[in-house]
Structures are given as structure tokens and as C-alpha cells.
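Reminder: ligand-aware prediction takes two inputs, not one.
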Amino acid sequence: MQDDLTEMTDIAAVCAAIGIDALGVVKATPLQSYDIYREIIARGVPPQLEYLARNADCRRDFDAILPGTKSIVCCACTLPVFRAETACRYARFCAFGDYHLMMREKLLKLDAYLRANYPIQNSRICVDSAPVLERELAVHAGLGDIGFNRMLIHHDFGSFIALAELFVDADLTECADPPAYHVRREATEAWIPGHHGCCDPAHRRCSSACPTGALSDHGYDMNKCLAYWTTQHKGDIPEPYATAMGEMIWGCDRCQNACPRNLNAPRPCVATSTLDTLAFDEILSLSARQLRKRLANSPLADANPHMLVRNTCIAIGNARVSKYSEQLGTIAATHTCDWVRRAAERALTMTGECS
Ligand code: SF4
Ligand code: SF4
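Here is what comes back for the chain with iron/sulfur cluster:
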């Protein structure tokens, strides 16, 4: 396939063949959101997010990622949706298979095409693999603007997109024909969250839909966000957040589901996922090792099994489903992790199986 791609001349055809929905290029110049990032880190981040503070200078110095970086190719791919019959409820990014592997494969093909058609000697693919302020890069590359919900919102595809970058040692912005696909140049302030393109400030639907108050005029508070509590936090989930999870067992998405700018996005494809058949009772009965094996090659391949069992217990409690009482009882009595045991006890209490 790569041989065919390198002979193509139309970037739209190349992107379509690879499965990239939008692509733009930005010159490697300092980013404005670096200072905001430093302020957030200085205010303190939860222990499980301390990795955000590591290699801080890489977010400002592109040479730390690829020496001689002259421009960055930003790519976006729309996320599929789960099949309606999927047993459990997850945030939509989980429908994308092994996201890191899939995006890397796409960018490897893109890299081969660009090297054959542009004066690139060195390049590096980033799919969450290096500290990059990717949303501001994406804005400057013309892929969209930042919504009040802090998501990158593409003008056609909305915010349910995955981003990845290709750092290259050639300034593609100065080429006669810079690669571009589904891009639209926005005002330079578009990287400021909610700067424009958002709904009436009096009726911000993302903020209204957020069950925890994580989105407010004071900004985005990751300490209140269910995406943090369910996918990053190892420990007890405090009661207001546990209740707010509803039946979601990984992530949240409510602020994106409520956003009117997602309503006009093209109908997404429906994914077939290894998660489709993963049911509550299987999560409750498998050992940590078995769960890891079961989730291999899925978006939850790196998920902490204890966190998944904890979240499942909470979701069962929230749904007041009593048929899992035997498994919950076993977990409450024997699980090696104390916060998983407490989540099972909570579920038993909520389902009336324990007083
Ligand atoms: S819901 Fe409204 S305010 Fe929130 S990101 Fe979407 S358009 Fe912007
Ligand atoms: S992911 Fe959920 S908890 Fe986090 S900001 Fe969005 S709606 Fe609020």
C-alpha cells in the first residue's frame, strides 16, 4: 500500500486511503498555551497525573522531540461509535481499537508519502508518546478551535476525534503546495478555550451537562472531572463523583454529547470491538491477569484491572441491579485491594443486599 501511496499526488486521496479525516501543517514556533500549561502544573495536579509535569520543556522546545524540527503535521481521525448492543458503557475513545497502534500505522503511511513528495530527512511520530501541546498545534494547523469544554472541535467532524502529530525537519508551510485536507484557518485566538464558535455563554450546554461542576467560568477543573476519576485515579472514588458516574465504567463524554457542534458531524462508523461482549459479570469474575489478557489489543489494554472492577461495582450500584450480589459479595470479602472491596460493599448496600 505504501508504494501506491507514494505515487499519489493528491493529498485528499492519500488521506482517504490511509483513513485520516483532516490534516494540516503548522510552523514550529513557540506556543501560547505553554504559559497556561505551566500555571496549571504550578497549581498542582492529582498524583496520578504527575506525568504531565515531566519533560515540561519538550512542550516548548520542539527540538527536544525531534532535533531540527521545522514544522508539524497535525492529523485528526473521527472516532467510531460502539454497537448499540455493547454490554457496558464507555467513553467513545474506547471504541477506537488500540488507538496508539492504529494512529501510528496511519502516520507511518503518511510519513512515507510525505518523504517521497517533500524535502523531509527526519521525522518523528507522536501519538501521546511525547509531551506535546497538541490542541494548540491542531488549531494553528487549521483543524478547529478549542471549545468551552476544552476539546478541539473540528468545523465538520466535531470533537469526537483522535489527534496525532508528525514532526518533520522541513518547513512544509513554505512549500508551494503544503499538505492540507479538511482544514480551515481560524482566528489566531482560537486556541483560547471557548474563544469563539461556542454556544451562548448563558446556555453553555457542555457546562450544564457536566454532572460534577468540572466546567465553569473559572475554567476546567480536572480534579472534578469523571474522566480523571474513572480512568486515572487509583483509590476510592468519593461519593458525589461515584454517583455522578451513572452506568459509565470508563470515561464520561457528557460535555461532548451535549455540544451542538457535534450534532452536524457526519454519521460515525460503528466499531466492532473486543469490548462489545465484555459484560459486568465477566469483569467481576476474572482475575487481574485474566482481565489484562481479555483486554489485550483493546483501548483498555493499559487499564488498571482494579480500577475497572471498582468502576463496574460503582456502576452496578448506581443502576441498582441486584443479580450480581454473589460476585459482589466475593469481591467485598476477598479482593486484595481495599478500595475495590469498598466499591463492592457500596454496590451491595445500594442494591439492598447489604445493610
Ligand atoms: S456546548 Fe456550547 S459552549 Fe460547550 S463546547 Fe459546545 S458549543 Fe462550546
Ligand atoms: S468529561 Fe464529564 S465530568 Fe469531565 S468535564 Fe466533561 S462532562 Fe464534566
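The chain has a mean pLDDT of 89. The CA atoms of residues 72 and 167 lie 5 Å apart. We will return to this case in the review session.
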